[in-house]
Amino acid sequence: MGARAKAFFSVSAIGLIVLCFWLWRFMPTQGWAEIDFQAEKWTLVASGWSTLLHAWPILAAGVMLGLGLGIGLLGVLFNSFIDADQKSEIAHLERLVKESQEREQQSLVLAEKKLEQEFSKARDLYERAIILQEESETQVGKAFQMQKAAKAAQEAALQDVEQAQFRVRNAVAAAERIKRKHHA
Asked: Where are the transmembrane segments (predicted)?
């Protein structure tokens, strides 16, 4: 039950209490009289609360009319209160949905930014890896060239050593021939 319905029923209860208090003070001053048209005379039949026993047809009609109007009015008011409460609840839920959608949109934007940053980092790392691979291939190529140059230098050195040894042998042989020639 919404706040408006509670307020209405509170006011209705206070009104009913005021009506009962008023009736409590009003009924003792009332009476029921009957008229004799032939004698043109009024006869007091009842006074105070006992008047209600004699006025039951009027009381019943009043109660039925009051209940009918009251129930109809209460139904209309209750429906309007329920409609107002439902509209208020719908507005509240729409606000919650809108806030949720805004948070979702913000989360999507944040996730897209983060994804873009991660993609950018990955792209940078990939480019760096390509550069490092190219540098590595260049270094490997240089190492192979240096190895080839070292082998060539080693082979040239071996040939130089062999030639030097050959010359040494030739020189030793020539020296021995000269020595034999001089000793002979």
From this structure: 7-24, 55-78
